[in-house]
Fold this sequence. Notes:
By secondary structure, the chain is α/β, with parallel strands linked by helices. Helix content is 40%, strand content 14%. The longest helix is centred in the middle third of the chain and has 22 residues, at 150-171.
Amino acid sequence: MKETIIILTGGGPAPGMNTVVGSIAKTFIAKGYRVLGINGGYKGIFSKNPNIVELDFILADSIFNRGGSYLVMSRYKPTAEDFEKNFNLELFTKNNIKLLITIGGDDTASTANRVAKFLHEHNHKISNIHVPKTIDNDLPLPLQRPTFGYESAKAEGARLATTIYEDARTSNNWFIICAMGRSAGHLAFGIASAAHYPMTVIPEMFNKTPITLDKIIKLSISAIVKREILGIKYGTVMISEGVFHELSNEELTNSGIIFSYDDHGHPELGKISKAHIFCELVEKRLKELKIGIKVRPVELGYELRCQSPVAYDLVYCTELGIGVYQLFTEGNTGCMVYIDHLGKVKPLYLSEIQDPTTGKIPPRGVSIDSDRVQAVIKNIFHFITESDYAAASKYLENPEEYDFNKILNW
């Protein structure tokens, strides 16, 4: 029987999933391997009747540039009991599987190591290589290399955000937009910067003061009033959903939001409209200030995950897929595939980016003090500073409370 590799996808989708799968399949098929894909993520490995598909060249060639994931994804995370009672060992032994390739986040990667260890303990030696993805771009890859999917999600987000901004300008309205980003503001800041939004609020901005709902509201109104002073009757405020993760329990309770949590303990932010919540809070404050401006909410989330990959990710994901084969032939296992700034394929181990004490991977945030970020803040953002106090007093009893730098304690 031919030596076989098997591919699974875990977590949520990102543009380029199919590019990685298609590139892996084409490469290994050309080298004489049989390529299997498993639907349902890890659920398939812990099922007596897994939904398996064999990937040939024609199938791989038909999906490599498509959005979404041809292989059905899942956030399923097996328990110790699942390994004891439900692990499908025959799937690996009967199909002569030599390599498990996983595509997903850090939870998917760590589970792959558990699977490989379990197989070794049951006398079936297997290699495992992980391809990291997230549109949040918060995985701390060396030298600030992006995670695949981010550039495509940012491009689609910028297209939508530009349309929203044009609506604001056309109708003299304000919009509150919220973008995905569990713990970092890369996507929100990247989209808003591309669309020249006058205010963006991301968790990294609060590096010298705690995040509160009041501060987020004040930053939004600072931009609105500044534009009023400039005679501009429209605008947009981008807020990263990641600010929710930094709010205290008291702040979350005061917000009136009741969260549900996923299997990994993360608030299921996708089930609520953050834009609607912030819109209501900002509009309520505007009414209290007797500023006759209405705002409207727009959520940018699931629209960004399954779009077709842009050229950047088509190339990047092709390189990652081919890189899996290179690492495998070099004898690497238990690692992620990584391509450095010089285009060299290298293995990256979880231990290299994990916190040595907690074992968790700290998220990579936006470098808020970098020149490129500060340039946008200082030149594209609109907000109240001390020089605006006299003009802002027409709208605000205490303009100092809405001073951008004082709100953030910068």
